[in-house]
């Protein structure tokens, strides 16, 4: 099993598409945002070259295990959403996202999360998982608004922007939750 290379997903207001080289400047700009630096460990070391490498190569490396999308709203780069830690045998994948500062608090992250989850379920996934740092209340709110259920707190389960370990809230969404 595999995700589809080059797939485009459309929701009511968003286009979710593969990353392109032209997205690198927006990825770099987002990495300079204090809120992204607070939660995303990659942000502090982002350069134009690492952004280009991400957009042209790393975001597309293995559709059997991961799929990454640029989120586009009103023809403008709004953020990133991806599927990872995919286990086709168990029918499980993890969704992760970040939003550019201008695109926050507009419901785009919720809409993109729902769109990606629907795509994963169509591809045969049974369970979607989402991890959010315990202090990242906004990300937890996205999970809940997208219909995910809070299951547990995993001790020191993720690195955050400071390079420190953080406890993470585990959320899940089952295919049966949305049918």
From TrEMBL:
Pfam family membership, one: Acetyltransf_3
SUPFAM superfamilies: Acyl-CoA N-acyltransferases (Nat)
InterPro entries reported in the protein's UniProt record: Acyl_CoA_acyltransferase, GNAT_dom, Ribosomal_N-acetyltransferase
All copies of domain N-acetyltransferase, residue ranges: 14-176
Protein name: GNAT family N-acetyltransferase
Organism: Actinoallomurus oryzae
């Amino acid at each position: 099993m595999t995700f589809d290379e080059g797939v485009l997903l459309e929701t009511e207001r968003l286009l979710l598409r593969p990353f392109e080289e032209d997205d690198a400047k927006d990825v770099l700009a987002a990495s300079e945002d204090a809120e992204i630096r607070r939660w995303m460990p990659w942000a502090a070391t982002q350069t134009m070259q690492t952004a280009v490498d991400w957009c042209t190569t790393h975001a597309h490396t293995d559709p059997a295990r991961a799929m990454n999308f640029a989120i586009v709203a009103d023809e403008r780069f709004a953020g990133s959403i991806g599927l990872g830690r995919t286990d086709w045998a168990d029918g499980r994948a993890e969704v992760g996202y970040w939003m550019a500062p201008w695109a926050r608090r507009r419901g785009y992250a919720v809409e993109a999360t729902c769109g990606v989850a629907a795509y994963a379920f169509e591809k045969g996934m049974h369970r979607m998982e989402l991890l959010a740092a315990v202090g990242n209340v906004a990300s937890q709110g996205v999970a809940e608004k997208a219909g995910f259920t809070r299951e547990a707190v995993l001790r020191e389960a993720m690195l955050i922007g400071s390079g420190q370990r953080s406890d993470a809230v585990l959320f899940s969404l089952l295919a049966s939750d949305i049918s």
